[in-house]
Amino acid sequence: xxxxxxxxxxxxxxxxxxxxxAGATRRFARIGLSxxxxxxADMPLCLAKDGQTGRFNLIALMSLIEPANLFxxxxxxxxxxxxxxxxxxxxxxxxxxxxxxxxxxxxPSLGEDxxxxxDGDRPGPLLIDIAxxxxxxxxxxxxxxxxxxxxxxxxxxxxxxxxxxxxxGTVHDLAGLYTVDEAAMRALPDTDVLALHxxxxxAPAAILTASLAQVERLRQLHNVRFAxxxxxxxxx
Length: 236
Fold this sequence. Notes:
By secondary structure, the protein is an alpha+beta fold. It is built from eight helices and 16 strands. The longest helix is centred in the middle third of the chain and has 29 residues, at about 125-155.
């Protein structure tokens, strides 16, 4: 993301953080290992390939074809869980910034509403919480990356085809998504299955597969707010 600047009491003394607006423009969010079961209660979880590294990232989908987060409306995030990358998306760790943080000034969570970032010319308690939250998120995402790398090493990742049909007859295909290959998992040697089980790599794979049922939730949220409606979809 461009436009990231170190946080400064001189420049940003009056800036506030509005939790209810966090993630409003994010169509997906990377999630950490500990978030998998929580995010799956609301969102389809899948994988997307990083264009620079070629590795697969674990993400939660929060949008289908619209340039907005389908869960953010009516004054807040309408879900049982807010991915931490969405909640804290306006901040980055930066030792050169106040409180060890940098910000994206264009993020919708940062503005005139919400809790103040500064107490006078000093970082307020909120900034301490945000910095600690980001540190935990970085470690948690790294743990999720190790999980996904393990799946990739066992060739357990396949492309996911998601095709949406709208009420006007047009079809929109979401490209670049991947999921766990259940057939490849069933074909693994017993020794590999046991090793994956002991490393706690199998249960998250099952949650990912089950979470794809939440595409229907996204379709419903789209149809409440946008036209033409999505009349049907196919997952393959």
